[in-house]
């Protein structure tokens, strides 16, 4: 399950309520969006580029919060997760507490209309939230613009934005984030073959805010 910012009548809260109940029953954290390798890819990039462990990191649409737990296990100390869904934040709080990672900050927040309390960050990470915003049947184009504007507000100048997407190609993402961001790197992702053509089912890019 992803963790986008959808209208209250969407099914995301219901999905996270089910995952919350499952976690309470059997301790299963639920779906890891894009799989564990997507988390490893992000952490490897941060380590390769020697991103300081005290850098402020925002997980946009944190879902079950597992990425933040893995970042904390890797030594990162200044971690914040936000999600539109209160049930997702409840779940991520339980996962955080079970793992004993009390330094992870979690809050209900609509990234398309962020509150004044949401500070600015050195790193912003998105695994599937921009995808979900893009699929919203009510004014998806307008919501993508709001997303890019919010990202410009919460990401520090020269800060890094790591995005993982299954809906958008590299070229499309470059176009979406052309205002205020520049591409630094495309991260390797699994390839698939269909009809003799090889392509990527997942795109992972690193942008830097200008």
UniProtKB/TrEMBL annotation:
InterPro entries: Efm4/METTL10 (IPR026635), Methyltranfer_dom (IPR025714), SAM-dependent_MTases_sf (IPR029063). GO terms for molecular function: protein-lysine N-methyltransferase activity. Residues 56-185 form the Methyltransferase domain. The keyword Transferase applies. Keywords: Cytoplasm, Methyltransferase, Nucleus, S-adenosyl-L-methionine, Transferase. GO terms for biological process: methylation. It catalyses: L-lysyl-[protein] + 3 S-adenosyl-L-methionine = N(6),N(6),N(6)-trimethyl-L-lysyl-[protein] + 3 S-adenosyl-L-homocysteine + 3 H(+). GO terms for cellular component: cytoplasm. HAMAP family: Methyltr_EFM4 (MF_03188). This is EFMT2 methyltransferase. It comes from Emberiza fucata.
């Amino acid at each position: 399950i992803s963790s986008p910012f959808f209208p209250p009548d969407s099914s995301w809260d219901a999905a996270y309520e089910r995952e919350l109940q499952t976690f309470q029953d059997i301790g299963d954290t639920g779906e890891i969006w894009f799989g564990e390798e997507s988390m490893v890819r992000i952490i490897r990039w941060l380590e390769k580029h020697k991103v300081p462990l005290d850098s402020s990191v925002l997980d946009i649409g944190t879902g079950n919060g597992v990425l933040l737990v893995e970042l904390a296990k890797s030594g990162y100390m200044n971690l914040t997760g936000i999600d539109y869904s209160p049930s997702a934040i409840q779940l991520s709080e339980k996962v955080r507490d079970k793992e004993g990672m009390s330094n992870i900050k979690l809050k209900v927040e609509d990234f398309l209309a962020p509150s004044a309390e949401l500070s600015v960050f050195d790193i912003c990470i998105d695994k599937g939230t921009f995808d979900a915003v893009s699929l919203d049947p009510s004014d998806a184009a307008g919501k993508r613009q709001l997303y890019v504007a919010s990202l410009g507000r919460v990401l520090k100048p020269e800060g890094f934005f790591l995005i993982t997407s299954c809906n958008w190609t590299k070229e499309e993402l470059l176009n979406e984030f052309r205002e205020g961001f520049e591409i630094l790197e495309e991260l390797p992702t699994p390839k698939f073959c269909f009809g003799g053509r090889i392509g990527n089912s997942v795109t992972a890019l690193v942008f830097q805010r200008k």
